[in-house]
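Page header: ASSEMBLY MODEL / two components / 225 residues total.
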Amino acid sequence: KAGVTQTPRYLIKTRGQQVTLSCSPISGHRSVSWYQQTPGQGLQFLFEYFSETQRNKGNFPGRFSGRQFSNSRSEMNVSTLELGDSALYLCASSPRDSTEAFFGQGTRLTVV
Amino acid sequence: LAKTTQPISMDSYEGQEVNITCSHNNIATNDYITWYQQFPSQGPRFIIQGYKTKVTNEVASLFIPADRKSSTLSLPRVSLSDTAVYYCLVGDMNNNAGNMLTFGGGTRLMVKP
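Prediction written out in full:
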């Protein structure tokens, strides 16, 4: 069974640009969550989608958004990038309301 | 969400048993305790989950006392490849609010030869 797939693995963007990251969950998993990991703030929850609806949102500015498609694949978008958005962005999928989440390898975003 | 407290770092040697303790004084009745492992530049990986007493799987054991205000992750006979950050999480598995994991600072385990 394929794991959670995130693309791209690495990305370099310039301040002010926008970026879209993609996540394909494990087949059958309908819940997809996104996290940001930085050395200073650790792992922080961004948002979670279930059946194309955002169910939870973390404490991030509106520049961070996401969506989920009917096949459960999810994308997150960050607009007007700032240097502080440089981080490892992780996607996780779950088969049900559970604390057992399956994480992808992440996308390493560098903003210059 | 119950907050967790765990040591920032621990050192061990290959072949030793490692015990990492996590405090969660405000754990709620419906909360489960879950541990994740993370290697550098990878996503966290689920290790073990429990509600009370003891849970064991092929990777680790989880000990939870009767008051559930703390838990101990036990890794038997660690190897160099167990060097990672270990996170203790507490959350309500039965809530319908979705999968919103709250990670603390984790414990950085260094296994030495």
